[in-house]
Amino acid sequence: MILPIVAYGDPVLRKEAETITKVYPKLNELIQDMYETMYAASGVGLAAPQIGLPIRLFLVDATPFSEDDDLTPEEQQQLKGFKRTFINAQILEEDGDEWAFSEGCLSIPDIREDVFRKPKIKIQYQDEDFITHTESFDGLIARVIQHEYDHIEGILFTDKLSSLKKRLIKGKLANISKGKISVDYRMRFPAQKKKR
After folding, report:
1. Span 41-84, pLDDT tens digits
2. Is 98 a catalytic residue?
3. pTM over 0.70
4. Domain limits of the chain?
5. Catalytic-labelled residue, pool 74, 98, 135, 148
6. Between 20 and 30 A from 63 (CA), which of 19, 36, 72, 80?
7. How far is CA 128 from CA 11, 59, 61, in A?
8. Which candidate, 92, 68, 89, places its Cα nearest to that of 80?
């Protein structure tokens, strides 16, 4: 089932998400719905807060990045078929010199800005079967994971921009939170929620 994506301005996007256990209700169904929602919105990652749930769950499918002609064949191969579900993730280390990449977010449509992040991460997480993994990632995969991880910490990519950039996009962000934007996927705006 395709779920509405929560828009910028909703308080759920600012909450530090809570740890879950394997008895979380209908977890497998939720994960499948999240993948379906992400694909319907042409995303490469989606975190539970973006569908209104403040839990430590996010997923990544970096395959669309593998078609980028600017990447080396090795990078394309690394991204192709990279699909993971991250439950109760904790980033243990971030390493290397920060690099900029133009990021966007399904909760903040039509805004893309360069964000600086470290190129390498070490992360501990549980998969759908609650098996714990500790892995290291680098490059674009690390970046997508960091972006989604920020969501479960209540952080948005716009928080990482300079104060000048924040001022320049302030009006656009206000319009998004009011629903004054056109997108080709289902969204839920803070203003709509209050009317109910």
Report:
1. 999 999 999 999 999 999 999 988 778 777 778 878 888 889 99
2. no
3. yes
4. 5-187
5. 148
6. 19
7. 27, 10, 15
8. 68
